[in-house]
Every structure is written in structure tokens, then in C-alpha cells.
Amino acid sequence: LQRARARTVAPPRDLPEVGKPLGSADHPGYTRKVALAVPDAAHHVHLVGETGTGKSTLIAQMVLADAEAGRAAVVIDPKGDLVNSIVERLPKQAIGRTCLFDPDDPEVAVGLNVLSGEDPDLVVDQIVSVFRRIYADAWGARSDDIMRCACLTLTQVPGATLADVGALLTNDEFRAQVRSDPSRFRNIGDVNLFWDWFEQLGPQRATNIGPLMNKLRAFLLRGPVRAIVGQSDPKLDVGKLIDSGGLLLVRVPKGTIGEETSRVLGAFIVARVWQVCMQRARRAERDRSPVGLYVDEMHNYLALPRSFEDLLAEARGYGLGLVLAHQHMGQLTPNIRDALAANARTKVTFATSPDDASVLAKHFAPQLSDYDLANLEAFQAACRPCINGAHGPAFTFRTEPLEPEIAQRATEARDEAAHNFGVPRSQVDAKLRNRIGELGDEWVDEPVDEPPVALRLDHRPVPVSRGKQR
After folding, report:
1. What does the pLDDT look like over 341-384, one tens digit per residue?
2. DSSP 8-class letter at 403
3. pTM to 2 decimal places
4. Where are the beta strands (DSSP E) in 378-460?
5. 349 has which bridge partners?
6. Are 193 and 395 in contact (CB under 8 A)?
7. N or C: which end of the chain has fewer CB within 10 A?
8. Helix H segments across 258-408?
9. What pLDDT score does 189 carry?
10. CA geometry: angle at 120 spanning 428 and 237, to 5°?
């Protein structure tokens, strides 16, 4: 006996065949392509399904269609395979406008100065929010206060980066140099009151900054990450890249850089894209070209200092359409779940567990039931589309397999991206050492039989003279 699979449902007649591709209709007698119109995709797409059911294939098809049509797209990939699949199949005309973030590149790093921006308060809010949400179980009010004041101070120092926070907190000479010109802090409030308190802490200073420093070190002591966030004047301008219809492909593989580091770095990219899109408010709506933001494992990377519901509601007005993917509903908080249900008008569901199917079934009724959602085959999906800005009836489809990879296309795209947007990692580390010197560790009295050492950024012990402490 063969168990009955999910029923198939024909797509609505007014669903387009071109735009953001979904796949092919799988109902008997219906063999046409199915897609989302680009304006309808700006109402956001929610993708949910178990691992290996076809989510990455669908996202890759959408991004490649954007590249072919000259539309801007940003991809956050926590595994790395999705970006590799896209790079291997890039259209020829898209290579020159593709930027690849890849911490696994041993030689070249694309920079992102997270402290730069027109509004220092907004920039700092986003940085602190990223750390607060990712380290929620070990982030207190004191760490929040110290991180905020340190970042706000560095936004007024020319050439400063997030990699300088450790030096600002632990290097007395560097901190004195930063504070030597009080006039630079006129536009950001009286942070000097904080630093006066900080200087008076004395031996208690290490205790106060310890919880923050152990998180910063875990992030910044990784060479690839330090080379990315340590560039004071990176070659990449996210705003110009998006406005020119470019592709920003971000590999943040958890397996090589660590889960928390992947979340922090990916969240910084999302925050920068959001900053750029908000600046579009100054333009007429017709001048805001569409941008697609594709986020796999979306619950790990959307850590902005505002409610998720507000983000979804406002993003479409800036021309930003989100495609948000994850494995199961248990990964989402109740607030995020409700916001997606209300504001992501296109729902795409691959095979899910019976529990998730019962929750999602109300979006696909009456055409499909929870039994149908739980018994979809691999690369088969159910969709409740947005059509002309309204909810359309649910249907089923199958994703199309990716075209064969193009020989040498990945190498060509990576070389071009490194030339246009990358900087040698050794050069970034040298600039950091020249600007600050030893970072991150206080000098302490050492036993007589052990020579004192200071820890450099490159982890090499460097002998230091006795009698001077910091």
C-alpha cells in the first residue's frame, strides 16, 4: 500500500510566469511556469520547510533572476553552499557588479566599517542591539552602557573601527589621545562624564569591562572577521552597490567562523542594508529601485533596534523586499511569528512537521489542509501568493533544478570581486597594529621567574619592559 501524498492544486490564472521565479505548476494538465511579480514580492516572502526540501534551490533561482534582470540583491548565507551555487551560475553581465563577503578567503577581505554612517545615534543603536540580542542571556545593563559610550565616542574619531573598542577600554594612552580634543564630542552628548567615571574606577575597571571584553575578543580575535570590520575606509559602498543593481553575497559559514560570530557579522550586514534603504526616504518613491534581501535562518540575523513588525511594514516603502527562510516555527518568537503572519503576504511552505503544518494550514485553507502540508514531497511546495497586492488562492508547485554550473565562472567572479572590493588581509592587520599597538589585554605584575608579555593582535607574545603598567 502507498500512503496518499499531498493533493496538487492548480495555480490561479492571474499568477504571472515571469518575475521572481517559483517553479512549475504540478497539477495534472497545468505545466506552465509560476512566479511572483516584482512589486508583489516587495510585500515580503516567508519560506519555511525542513532541511533538504528545496528552500536553497528556490532562493538561488530568485537571486539569479535578479542578477539577470539587473535588480539589486543581498544574500545572507549561514552555510556557504547557497552563495557558492549562485556564484557558479552568475550571468556574465553581473560579474562586475557582484561583491562577495567570504571570511574563508585566506588572502583578501571585503571591509565593512560598522561605525560609519550619517547618524551616529542610529549606528550605535544598531551595533548595541546586535550584541544585546545575540548575547541576550549574558548581556547586562553595565555592558550595554560601556559598549554604547565606547562606540559613540569612536564614531567621532576619524578612521576608527569596531576593532578599536578594545584599545579604547584597555589602553590608557590611546584613550587619552581620543579624549584630548573634547570639541569632537559636542554633537553626541556629554560622553566625557562617562569617561570621567570610567577613569575613577581604578582596579575595578577590569571587572566592569570583563563581561563585554570576552564577547568582543571572541569576535575580533578571529583574523578574517577582524580584517572585515577593521577597515576604516573600505572599498565597498553598500549604497552605491545597491543603487547600481549590484549583488552582495555574504557567506557567514557557522562551521568555520563559529555560530555566534556568524550571527554578529550577518546581523551587521543586515543593519547596514537597512541604514542604506532608510536613506531612500529622501527620494521620490519612483526613484527607489527594488532591492531583494534574502536571509536564510532569518531568526539569527534580524537583530535591529526596532520591532520586527515595524521593519516589515516600513521596508516595502523603501523598495526593500524580504525573503525570509527558516526550518520550523519553533525557531521564531511569538512576536516575529505574528509579524510574519500579518506582513509577509506570500507564504511558501515545503514539507513540515505535523505540528507546524497545523499552525500554517490556516493560511492555505480551503485549498490545502494540514495533512497536505505535512506530506509534501522533496522540492514540492505549497504557496499562498500575493497577487496585485492582495492575497491569492493557495496552490502547489515544484521548484526547478538549477542549471549546470558554468566552467570557471566562480573563479572569475571571485577574482573580479576581490579586485573591485577587497583589500589584502595582511595590509589590514598591519594598519591596525600601527594605529594602536598592542590591544586587548591589561599589563599586570608577573612572577619574577616569568618574563612579562603583552598579547598582540596576531597572538605573538611580545616582551615588554617592567615598571610600566596599564
Report:
1. 888 999 999 999 999 999 999 999 999 999 999 999 989 999 99
2. P
3. 0.87
4. 380-384, 386-387, 390-391, 395-398, 422-424, 453-455
5. 48, 382
6. no
7. N
8. 259-278, 308-315, 334-343, 354-364, 370-374
9. 65
10. 45
Q: Cis (ω within 30 of 0) for the bond into 424? A: no
Predicted confidence (pLDDT) at residue 454 exceeds the cutoff of 60: no
CA distances to 23, 70, 99, 231, 365 from 402, rounded to whole Å, are 11, 19, 21, 36, 31
Distance, CA of 232 to CA of 155 (rounded, Å): 11
275/123 Cα distance (integer angstroms): 8
Radius of gyration of the chain (CA): 25
**DSSP letter string over 388-402?**
TTEEPPPEEEEPPPP
Query: Which helix (H) or strand (E) element contains residue 46?
Result: strand 45-48
Reported as a single tens digit per residue, the pLDDT across 295-321 is: 998 988 887 777 777 788 888 888 899
Q: For 166-216, how does the pLDDT look when each residue is reduced to its tens digit (9 = 90+)?
A: 989 998 888 888 888 777 766 666 788 888 899 998 888 889 999 999 999
Q: How far apart are CA 49 and CA 297, in angstroms?
A: 11
Q: Where are the beta strands (DSSP E) in 208-309?
A: 247-251, 291-296
Nearest Cα to Cα of residue 250 among 65, 417, 19: 417
